[in-house]
Amino acid sequence: MTVHEAGIGRHFEDFTVGDVFQHPFGRTISEADNTWFTLLTLNTNQNHFNADFAGRAPYGRIIVNSGLTVALVLGLSVIDVSQSALLNLGWTDITLDHPVFVGDTIYAESLVVEVRESRSRPYAGIVTCRTRGLNQDGDEVISWLRTVMVYRRDAPHDKGYFPQAKSGPMRLPGDAG
């Protein structure tokens, strides 16, 4: 039997300039998602939570809070870009290209635009990606450049965190082992 140590994501050595990662999950935004996020962040723009008010605006309906769109696309990209990161170093060039509405399903993909060694941390490297969010129709709703510091494969920091069971290793039924 082989025990596969806990861990997911990519390490510094897994990134090459020009690679595109189509992140595996999509997420449909519900009215509750938008309302709760808007209230949580104290965003008082009524276009995000007042259907009567938003109905009089040019789009004629509630627009999803752009902060939620940022957070969602960021989250969708973590599995491929920053699951093994130790630091976010920055976001630049954020653009909101198309409105997002309740009921839209958002997907994300990232293009690796720069990879370099870390000068201060030999156990990590720096990766910059252009990430964009797409709705179910393929409209680009948001994009940005994001730079993260990612552990190298041999870095000890992201390994060995899974606890040892006091009862010993798992065994097949009937295995007295």
TrEMBL record:
GO terms for molecular function: lyase activity. CDD domains: FkbR2 (cd03451). Pfam families: MC_hydratase. It comes from the Bacteria. InterPro entries: HotDog_dom_sf, MC_hydratase, MCH/BMMD. Transmembrane segments: none annotated. This is MaoC family dehydratase. It comes from Actinomadura barringtoniae.
